[in-house]
Amino acid sequence: MHSLRDVALISAAVAFLSLPAAAENRLPAKQRTLLLFKALTYDNNIAKGRDQLRVGIIVQKGSADSENVGKEMEGQIRGVQNMKVSGMKISSELLAADGGDAVRKLIDQKKVNIIYLASGLDKLLDAICDVAAKKKILVVSGEVDHSRKCAALTFALKDSRPKIFINVKQAGAQGAAFRDELVKAAEIVR
Fold first, then answer.
1. Amino acid 21: pLDDT
2. pLDDT attached to residue 11
3. Are 155 and 144 in contact (CB under 8 A)?
4. CA-CA distances (angstroms) from residue 27 to 5, 23, 155?
5. What digits encode the pLDDT tens for the residues 113-167?
6. CB 77 within 8 A of CB 40
7. Which among 73, 88, 173, 186 is placed 20 to 30 Å from 42, CA to CA?
8. How far apart are CA 116 and CA 124, in angstroms?
9. Rounded to whole angstroms, how far apart are CA atoms 51 and 190?
10. pLDDT, tens digit (0-9, with 9 covering 90-100), for 33-73
């Protein structure tokens, strides 16, 4: 069981990871990756029906920024693939889509159970939210705007400091059950 000590540890990790943070609202990929896998240990439902964590990193096909953000995250996740989260191995794959039907098909084909949203996905968010809720797939992002739309968990800068955002409506729809320790350390988005 996690305790108040865990809230302090999460807060300390967020503060520590702020040291080399970028000037914009996006945390560096390494920090987003470490926070993601730490935060997943605070989801009571993360291991339900899963034998491993398969992260699908969705990018907008043809968008250089989106593809760069996605490739950066994929590289960081591959760098921690020897790590386990709640006893599960980690894998990742870049999924480039240009429309709602394409993103639905990719998510089904690749059997992802965690979706990471790169930048520039405005045209795909409705389809991603729909499939994530239907299949109980947790959606995560490093873009603050995604926290208000589709991402249950977002790791970004606010006032030049790293912050965890939890969209409680999306988290519930996607089947997540975050422990109080994580919720207390996060900013809640409704």
1. 35
2. 54
3. no
4. 24, 9, 7
5. 999 999 999 999 999 999 999 999 999 999 999 999 999 999 999 998 999 999 9
6. no
7. 73
8. 13
9. 31
10. 999 999 999 999 998 888 899 999 999 999 999 999 999 99
- Integer CA distances (angstroms), 78 to 1, 10, 26, 125, in order: 29, 23, 20, 25
Q: Please answer whether residues 58 and 116 qualify as being in contact, where contact means their C-beta atoms are separated by less than 8 angstroms.
A: yes
Maximum Cα–Cα distance across the chain: 45
Edge-to-edge, what's the strand order for the sheet holding 84-85?
84-85, 88-97, 52-60, 114-117, 138-141, 153-158, 161-167, 187-189
Beta strands in the chain (DSSP E): 52-60, 84-85, 88-97, 114-117, 138-141, 153-158, 161-167, 187-189
The alpha carbon of 66 is separated from its chain's Cα centroid by a whole number of angstroms, namely 15
Give the DSSP letter string of 122-166.
TTTHHHHHHHHHHHT-EEEES-HHHHTTT-SEEEEEETTEEEEEE
pLDDT of residue 25: 83
Its CATH architecture, for the domain 4-189, is 3-Layer(aba) Sandwich (3.40)
